[in-house]
Amino acid sequence: MNARFPASVRVRSGRDYRAAFADSRRVTTRHFSLHLRLRDGGFCRLGMAVSRKVSPDAVVRNRIKRVLRESFRIRQATLPRGDLIVVARAGAGQLDKAALRAELEQLWARVLALPPPAPAGTIPAVAGSPAAPSPTPIDPSPAASRAEGPSPA
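-> structure tokens emitted (153 positions)
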């Protein structure tokens, strides 16, 4: 098994994080919140936000991120294609490794249980149907242009 976490599967730019937070579907558990922004593309990417509110100790925050990356690697092939931003909540720092894994499995299960997104927009009208507006014909003859000139008032 390849245990690498290459840059191609990470959400790295602030623009991607902002887009995921602004336009996403959210799934939560007691200690985690996941923002899912579906994308067209071949794979899913992981972004993490583990702040000092979770724990002031960097060792604890890094442990949470390690367990999260490991859980993501295992489930990556089954997850939806898009950007997944996992935000750790206060209290996650007190969980041991087994409890973190169990809660992350619950989070992945909730993501997989989401209904498919609604289609974007409406169905475009087909030309010639009653709902489609018909274009007004333009008469290119010189007589038509004289007739449409300014009217005397």
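The chain is about 30% helix and 15% strand.
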